[in-house]
């Protein structure tokens, strides 16, 4: 199983080396900005590296919302980041499932997801897998609780969407980790990537605060079991830089080898 970390974007290959990571995930722009990615000077090196690359889309993206001023730019930004990610040879672009605002029907959010894939198809299609990630909070989320995830997949599954399972988001979002891989796969048919994170908050708290493995509220053996069952690469999105994340990677590797 290939294990790695979410790292700073300036020199992802150096960050990978510092952690002994097989996989790195990073942002192509400021994650809080509405900015199309710029070409990278290290693109050739990234393409040639034997480290697997995953790109995380900006947090601002919410393709589900009924708010036109967020939804329309979100679609465009998702496509521009997908193109830039594919140009670097990335294996997937991770984007949060999104939500509709209070008082709006989440069914419209699922339809807006479908329109996002239809928009991309008209523009030539997404050039790499779009990995929809489960989220921790909110009552109107498209991919927090798995009853909603199932309705989302009924709508977008035919477009070849992939899935990224975040263990912190699942736990804090109120989905038990025991047996979760089977429950997800019964809905999506696939898990492309695991975000292997501990949670600082209790089960079903709805809060999204990652912690180093074994330091939060999740039994680290459960996280190892999720990766083993999924048979998917895993990325830690945990604090502590090379030292903290390196220890998390070691914990996962030791757990998987045991
Ligand atoms: Zn995540």
Automatic annotation (TrEMBL):
Originating organism: Luedemannella flava
Protein family (similarity comment): Belongs to the AP endonuclease 2 family.
Annotated Pfam families: AP_endonuc_2 (PF01261)
Protein name in UniProt: Deoxyribonuclease IV
Domain Xylose isomerase-like TIM barrel: 13-253
Keywords carried by this UniProt record: DNA damage, DNA repair, Hydrolase, Metal-binding, Zinc
SUPFAM superfamilies according to UniProt: Xylose isomerase-like
Listed cofactors: Zn(2+)
């Amino acid at each position: 199983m290939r294990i790695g970390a979410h790292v700073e974007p300036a020199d992802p290959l150096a960050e990978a080396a510092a952690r002994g990571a097989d996989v790195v995930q990073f942002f192509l722009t400021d994650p809080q900005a509405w900015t199309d990615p710029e070409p990278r000077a290290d693109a050739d090196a990234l393409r040639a590296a034997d480290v697997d690359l995953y790109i995380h889309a900006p947090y601002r993206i919410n393709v589900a919302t009924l708010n036109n001023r967020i939804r329309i730019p979100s679609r465009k930004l998702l496509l521009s980041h997908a193109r830039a990610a594919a140009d670097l040879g990335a294996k997937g672009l991770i984007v949060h499932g999104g939500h509709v605002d209070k008082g709006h029907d989440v069914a419209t959010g699922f339809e807006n997801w479908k329109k996002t894939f239809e928009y991309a198809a008209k523009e030539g299609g997404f050039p790499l897998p779009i990995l929809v990630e489960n989220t921790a909070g909110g009552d109107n989320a498209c991919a927090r609780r798995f009853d909603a995830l199932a309705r989302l997949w009924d709508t977008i599954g035919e477009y070849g969407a992939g899935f990224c399972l975040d263990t912190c988001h699942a736990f804090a979002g109120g989905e038990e980790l025991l047996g979760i891989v089977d429950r997800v796969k019964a809905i999506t048919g696939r898990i492309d990537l695991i975000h292997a994170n501990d949670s600082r908050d209790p089960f079903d708290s709805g809060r999204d605060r990652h912690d180093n493995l074994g330091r939060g509220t999740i039994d680290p053996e459960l996280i190892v079991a999720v990766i083993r069952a999924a048979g998917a690469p895993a990325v830690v999105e945990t604090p502590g830089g090379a030292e903290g994340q390196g220890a998390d990677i070691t914990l996962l590797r030791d757990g998987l080898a045991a």
